[in-house]
Outer membrane beta-barrel protein (Pseudoduganella ginsengisoli), 205 residues
Amino acid sequence: MKTRICSAIIAAALTVGASAAQAADTGSWLVRARAVHIDPADKSDPVGGAGAADRISVSSKTIPEVDISYFVTPNVAAELVLTYPQKHTVYLDGKGIGTFRHLPPTLLAQYHFAPGQTFSPYVGAGVNWTTFSKNRLLNGGASLEHDSIGLALQAGADVKIDKQWSLNLDVKKVQIRSDVLIGGAKASRAKVDPVLLGIGVGYRF
């Protein structure tokens, strides 16, 4: 069911992008740079299928982020969120057991409620694809799955400074999950599912 939902969202977002290419004279581009704080949910299944849950956690951190939006109409936009691979520490019962890197591009379809106004709030929904690399857990004895695909929800607002520049406040909830493998066998499932709080500036052209 989740796979079908994600596929539908991807198809819808790609349709928006295709429409934008065909109607470039009706839209405009907006590029934002944000500082984003990643706050993981730190939920996990019991290790080995027994005992307490939520023993595995992931470090929070603040990262740079760039997003590119194309406005198909004054109200509707497609946004691609980008950053570079981020390093996190993994903890078991509060003790560090290693690190990993992840790259989490996200594609969203947005609706802007007050385009052209000084204060313009918006909401968005889309799909996140996270790829994990450089897994160094338990000195190489454990690892995470290579990829995670999940839903992403968004709310935010642009505050216009002038015709081109704006301030931006943004919050996203992203579904990022991965099996934890020990010796190639599933030992648990980590539900990172972070909340991303962002603040930044935008330039429209």
